[in-house]
Amino acid sequence: MSQPRLRAAIYARYSTDLQRDASVEDQIRDCTDYAKAQGLEVVATYSDRAISGASLMRSGMQSLLRDAQCGRFDVLISEALDRLSRDQADIARVYQQFCFHRIPIETVADGLISEIHIGLKGTMNAIQLKDIAMKKTHRGLKGRALAGKSAGGKAYGYDLKPQLTASGDLIRGEREINPEEAAVVRRIFQDYAKGLSPKKIAEALNTEGVPSPSGRHWGASTIHGNRQRGSGILNNELYNGRQFWNRLCYDKVPQTNRRISRLNPESEWTITEVPELRIINPELWEAVRSRQGALKTKGTSTPVWDRRRPKTLFSGLMACGCCGGGLAKISRDSFGCSPARNKGAAVCSNKRTIKQADLEARVLDALANHLMDPDAVQAFCEEYTAERNRLKAAAAGNRKEKEQALARAKRDHQKLVDAIIAGIPADQVKDRMIELDTRRQQLERELEHTPAPDTVAFHPSMAEAYRERVSRLIRSLGSAEGMEDAKEALRALVERIVLTPAAAGAGLDLTLEGDLAGLLRLAAGAEGADTKKASGGAPEAFDMSDEIVLVAGAGFEPATFRL
């Protein structure tokens, strides 16, 4: 007597990114051929058309799950694992349910599916889903750009103009000229063509109180920008009736996570003529271009304002005590307030300067002799240790509450899944399931950043060790071999140097604000970590860069010294 053939079900799906209805029939045909080759009898077919695989809330998928629970078929066949789902968590959940009902999953691409397939393929499908979303977004933005519509942020001189289609849908990217801002743009172009510098133009606009694109003050860089990158008022091709899109791309630096822009190849730019958005007439545009060309440095295509001077020991760390702006080189050996010189007296009136040699000598003396006073360090360490241990004890209790809340969210979500499998319509519980899943993800993220409790203590000789190491770094500044490393190490100790006009005389008072984390790292003798005493007295390193806070009370600031 022959054994009955195993019953097979087929599932097929195509996504909204593949607008071809025949795709489902193609998949079913391939799966049917696979079933025949395996000696299986196809008894049911399920499908979802033009629906993303990012969610299980699909009518065909829900019918499949219900029938699996009822034992309607013995084997599930699909073209590939990503037809079932592209979400890693969802595909694992489906696999677990089918394993529980003892129904194997087979695909035309990979055959019998195992836990290894779920882990590897699930990860790859999740990554592919993100890639598809990014490509679709980029494709949509390019379509807007080709149509002459805005595919990015709002440019100065224009307003967004929301419009609706006949069916009431919003048309995105429509713009119109803002008359008041357009008048400012024309004035800037006319003044520059007459010979005024970006600095003088910015000063005049600030004096008159004209709002800038950022809503704060005008600066010379806001006007001249970077011609190659198309930044700055004078380089915005939209004012000339031409829209440039995809000229720049943005990436994060791995070491610092800082976002930087890079110029794309010209072949990737999308340039569209938009004469209705022209603000500057062609003659004035060319006059400005001619003057920009004449100001370029001899022998190079880089404008004067784009040249970068080598960094000094503390460049980028100085701030004006009057306006909060940065200080920059105003001569070969002197620093001065940038806003006072580039934006005018309406922004800052601090025109005092300081010699580079004087600044560096005073700051280095403070780093070596004042910022780690032994008594202040001891008091700080006692307060810091007590506060950190208190916070960690509180975090441990908070962690337990979050773990319990996470477990509840998972249980409640699973109950809703079971209800859907039992026959409850998915649309009745969809919102609650999304809410629970969002809550789950939030709690998991919070738990990742909630450390387990421990205790911390600092070595009693930190102040002496700090002074010895700083003195060694200062001596290294005179060595060609170790100079660059010493510069970076010393800069890491400084949070900010505030320069304020002295009450008496014509000089500047300096307030040095040390980077507390950097100071304690150096004092503890570790690079990127401080130390705590482990059992037995041996030092043990741990990362404290994200946890250092000043907890010793108001007025107690061992990392600040007035020079």
Write a concise keyword list for the protein shown above.
single chain; alpha+beta; extended; 4-stranded mixed β-sheet
- Please give the count of helices: 16
C-alpha Rg (nearest Å):
33 Å
Strand content: 15-25%
Q: What share of the residues lie within helices? A: 40-55%
Silhouette: extended
Strand arrangement, largest sheet?
Answer: 2-1-3-4-5
Low-confidence stretches: 297-310, 526-563
Based on helices, strands and strand pairing, what is the structural class?
Answer: alpha+beta
Number of DSSP strands? Answer: 22
Distance between the termini: 101 Å
Largest sheet: 5 strands, mixed
Question: Oligomeric form of this entry?
Answer: single chain
Mean pLDDT across residues: 76
What does this structure look like?
The protein is α+β, with helices and mostly antiparallel strands and 563 residues long. 43% of the residues lie in helices and 17% in strands. Strand 15 and strand 16 form a beta hairpin. Helix 11 packs antiparallel against helix 14 and helix 14 packs across helix 15. The longest helix is centred in the C-terminal third of the chain and has 48 residues. The N and C termini lie far apart (101 Å).
List the helices and strands and how they pair.
Elements: E1 7-14, H1 22-37, E2 41-49, H2 59-70, E3 75-78, H3 81-84, H4 88-100, E4 105-107, E5 111-112, H5 115-146, E6 158-160, E7 163-164, E8 170-171, E9 175-177, H6 179-194, H7 198-207, H8 220-224, E10 242-245, E11 248-252, E12 259-263, E13 270-273, H9 282-294, E14 318-320, E15 327-329, E16 334-337, H10 338-342, E17 353-355, H11 356-369, H12 374-421, H13 426-448, H14 462-476, H15 483-491, E18 494-501, E19 508-514, H16 516-524, E20 530-533, E21 539-542, E22 560-562
Helix pairs in contact: 4-5, 6-9, 11-14, 12-13, 14-15, 14-16
